[in-house]
Each structure stands twice: as structure tokens, then as C-alpha cells.
Design brief:
Blueprint (H helix, E strand, L loop, with lengths): L4 H12 L8 E2 H7 L6 H9 L12 E2 L14 H11 L11 H4 L5 H4 L5
Parallel strand pairs: 1-2
């Protein structure tokens, strides 16, 4: 059974809240961890809709190439990079995140066990 939008967004937020400082996850990785019931774009929509009062580390969610979010998110790409660097995320000389060193691999089963 497919979760409704609100349920799915809450699952995204619960998972994102577990990303520790110094680590990142990709939109696609989050989608796969949550059972592959949506595309990375839907995870991105959930992230852009995240309520401020949740205090989520949204800046720790990046695209698969390790590039910063475009536009106004987090105050721009430079601000997102500043936040990530201050937490210990590693960057390559070309400005992308060193995904091999910085990717977080959660055990999603701990958060979302199969429903009977």
C-alpha cells in the first residue's frame, strides 16, 4: 500500500533527522531507503516543503553528483557549502562533495519496518 503524501513526507523528515553532522544523503538514496515508492524529485519536493519548526538538517541532502542546491535554498549554494564544511563534510577541488567520504548509510529498516 502506497503512503499518502503527508505520511510519506513525514517518513522523509524522520530519515533526514538521522543524518549526522559531517555526512550527507542524496535525494535518490532517501527514496530507495523508503522503499522506492517515489522518485528523487518527490523527495526534493518534501525537502522544500519541510516545516522550519522541525529543525531538520535539510542542508545535508544533496544531489547524487554532490552539488549544492540551487536558488534560494539554505541562502544559496555558498551558504549550504559553508554549513556542510563547518560540520566536516569533505569537498573535492571542483567544488562537489566527496561522496565516498561523506555519504551516510542509514539502516532504514530501523525506522520503517515492513508493515504486516
Amino acid at each position: 500500500m502506497r503512503p499518502n503524501k503527508g505520511q510519506f513526507f513525514n517518513r522523509v523528515y524522520t530519515l533526514v533527522a538521522t543524518i549526522p553532522p559531517g555526512k550527507v544523503m542524496t535525494y535518490g538514496q532517501i527514496a530507495l531507503c523508503l522503499g522506492g515508492v517515489c522518485s528523487p524529485k518527490i523527495v526534493g519536493f518534501a525537502m522544500s516543503s519541510a516545516p522550519d519548526h522541525l529543525g531538520l538538517p535539510c542542508h545535508r541532502v544533496v544531489n547524487k553528483a554532490g552539488k549544492m542546491a540551487g536558488g534560494h535554498h539554505f541562502g544559496g549554494a555558498a551558504r549550504q557549502r559553508e554549513l556542510l564544511e563547518s560540520e566536516g563534510v569533505f569537498f573535492k577541488p571542483d567544488g562537489r562533495i566527496d561522496m565516498a567520504a561523506s555519504l551516510f548509510y542509514p539502516d532504514a529498516a530501523l525506522f520503517f519496518p515492513e508493515e504486516s
